[in-house]
Amino acid sequence: MHKLFRNILSFSIISISLFLGTTSFADENWTTVTSTGESYVVPETINANLPYQDGTYITNDATTFSNVGGIPFTSSNSNSNLESIIGSDDRAKVTNTKIFPYSATVFISATFPNNKTYIGSGNMLSPDSVLTAGHVIYSKEDGGWATNVVVVPGLDGNTAPFGSAIGTKLLSVSGWVNSSNSDYDIAMVRVNKPIGYSTGWYGLNTNAQINQNVNTAGYPGEKASTMWKANGPITTLNTNSISYSIDTTPGQSGSPIYDSNYKVLATHAYGMGDYGNSGTRINSTVFSWITNQNKDYVSIFRITNPNNGVHFYSSSPSEISNLLRVGWKSEGVGWFAPSSGNSIYRVYNPNSGLHFFTQSSGERDNLVKHGWKNEGISFYSSNSGTAIYRVYNPNSGQHFFTASESEKNNLVRFGWKNEGISWYGL
C-alpha cells in the first residue's frame, strides 16, 4: 500500500514550558533513540547558528527513475482534504532543481514493517545526513522505524540529478518515538554515501522572528514528484514550534522552513487548514541535538582514482570534495568512526603517491624513517565495534581498508594478503 505522509490536521497544544537562559537535556524527551537500538543523551552546546555549505553540483550520478522506492508518481491520496492551502495556492514549481538550495532539498520514501510506503521531504544537513520530521521515518501504527529509506536530492519528476542514497541509520528522540509528542517531531537520516558534497547543505538558525518572511521547498504528493516552493511570514512563535502562512499539502512533511541565508528555522510537520501550517522549531535544544549528532561520530568516506585503482579514505568534506572535482569517484561511506578515541595516523609516499593508514605509532614512525611523510591524525577508532580489515597487494604495494569481511575475502582470493583487523569503527 502506498500513501503520503499527511499534514496532521489536529494540531497538538504547544507545550508552554519556557526556556530560561539556556536549555537543559534534563528533559528525557530529548534522549536520542536510533533504529539500531541505541539510546543516549548528547551534551548541550551554546545557542548559535551554522552557515549553509555549497556543493560541487556535479551531476555524474544522475539517474532516471521510473519510480522511487516503489512509489507511483501519483497516489490515491493526492487529493486529500487534509491539504493546508491558505486561501489561494501560492506555490510555484521549481524549474531547476540542480541549483542551491533546491539541490539540497530531498524527496524521501520510507517503507515500514507493515509494508506500507510513504513519501515525505527533507533537507541535506551535512555530506551524509538529512533533516526531516520524526513521523516521516518513525510511525508506531506502521510498526516503528522505517525499514527502507531512500533519499533523492533535487528529484524532478523521474530525473534524479544527483542520484540517490539509502538510509543506514535513523535517529529521533524519545519524545517522538516513545510518546508521539508533536513537540519532538524531528529526525535525522544518515545515508550510505556523501551525496551532500554534490548537493551542498542547509545551515541552521535559532533566531526566528514574528513576521519574518521565510521559505520552504518540498514534494507535494499531488505534484508528481516535482519540487514546489513557497514563502510567507511567521505568524506564531512557541518554544517548540513555529507557525507560518505558507501553503503546503501532504508529502511536504519534513520540508525545511528557511531564512534568506538558507538556514533552517523549522522542519515542517503539521497542517492547520486555513489557520496556517507549523513545524518543529530549531530552538537552542534542537540545535544542540542536531549538531551533537553530527559530532558524535563521523563518516569515513571512501573514494577511488579510476586511473590507477588507488583508494583513499577521509572524514574531511573539503578534502573529499576537492578530489571529486578532479575525477576521483565516490564509493560511499566506508564506515563510521567516533569523533574521538584511538588515533589513526596517515602517512604519504611521495614516490608512489600512496597513502597508508595505521593505528600504530611505531609503524608510522618506521615508514617516516624510510621517506614517507607524516600527515598527522586522519580520524579515530574505537576499542571494539565494527572490524576494519586491512589487505595488501604485493604487486602494486597498495593497502586496502574495508568494513566488509566478504570484500576482504574476495580480494584475498585474487592474491591480496590478509593483514587482519587494523582497527575498529562504530
UniProtKB/TrEMBL annotation:
<keyword id="KW-0732">Signal</keyword>
<dbReference type="InterPro" id="IPR050966">
    <property type="entry name" value="Glutamyl_endopeptidase"/>
</dbReference>
<keyword id="KW-0378">Hydrolase</keyword>
<feature type="signal peptide">
    <location>
        <begin position="1"/>
        <end position="26"/>
    </location>
</feature>
<dbReference type="Pfam" id="PF18885">
    <property type="entry name" value="DUF5648"/>
</dbReference>
<protein>
    <submittedName>
        <fullName>Trypsin-like peptidase domain-containing protein</fullName>
    </submittedName>
</protein>
<dbReference type="InterPro" id="IPR000126">
    <property type="entry name" value="V8_ser_AS"/>
</dbReference>
<keyword id="KW-0645">Protease</keyword>
<feature type="domain" description="DUF5648">
    <location>
        <begin position="300"/>
        <end position="425"/>
    </location>
</feature>
<keyword id="KW-0720">Serine protease</keyword>
<dbReference type="Pfam" id="PF13365">
    <property type="entry name" value="Trypsin_2"/>
</dbReference>
<dbReference type="InterPro" id="IPR043708">
    <property type="entry name" value="DUF5648"/>
</dbReference>
